[in-house]
Amino acid sequence: MRVLIKSARYKPSNTDQLKNPVLGKKRVYTFFIFMGLFTLSYWIGSQFEVPQEDAEAFLEEFEELIGDIDGPGIFFHNSVIGLPMFIPGFGVAWGFFTSWQTGYAFSALVTVIPMLSEVPALALLYLSPFGMMELVAYSIAMSRSYLLIHKIIKKISIKDDYKIVGIEVGIAAGLLLAGGFLEVYMIELAEQSGMEMPF
């Protein structure tokens, strides 16, 4: 009888939940859904036509921003953008805005440098190693933001989620750090070979 009472009162811990294959699948599905949504938002932004004056003003600001930037600088910039995406609820909205704005920035570059029109907008995300790293990091953050706000709405405590959130923040930060140094390396390599890169 005591065994039955104890088992009835037992509530699964986060460790038990992590071992549950259904919850594991849910996490993976959520990640890929947000990867797709981030991509869609970016693509929509890239379809806007940017006026010539606005595009030239953007390019000047962009050149000033990346003029003397290095690996740590890119990492810091991307972290300021990416880490807030972990905030429950807000991170999802911020992620969509950021992805749309990035696509819009690509469209501005195409306006100023017409030859870039031959480069598919999604190539920056899926064909560049650092672009893929950033996409994965942002998708991890946005999907976790959704999962957290979903639990909050359902009135499920998230105080025990700090471990998994901490692990995912570390993974995202590691991807952004590696991506920052890789991006600088590829820019320097392109400059040495006389190529122009669309970023």
List the helices and strands and how they pair.
Elements: H1 2-9, H2 14-19, H3 21-46, H4 52-66, H5 71-82, H6 90-112, H7 123-126, H8 129-153, H9 162-192
Helix pairs in contact: 3-6, 3-8, 4-6, 5-9, 6-8, 8-9
Please give a structural write-up.
By secondary structure, this protein is mostly helical. The protein has one domain. 75% of the residues lie in helices and 0% in strands. The protein contains nine helices and no strands. The chain starts with a helix and ends in a 7-residue tail after the last helix. The relative contact order is 0.14.
List keywords for this structure.
single chain; 199 residues; mainly alpha; 9 helices
Helical percentage = over 70%
* Global Rg: 21 Å
* Total of helices: 9
Oligomer class: single chain
Average pLDDT, to the nearest integer?
83
Strand content: under 5%
Q: Let me know the number of strands.
A: 0
For the record, the count of structural domains works out to 1
Termini separation (Å)? 68 Å
Shape: globular
Most strands sheet: none
Order of helices and strands: HHHHHHHHH
Q: Structural class, judged by helices and strands?
A: mainly alpha
**Low-confidence segments, ≥5 residues, pLDDT <50?**
1-22
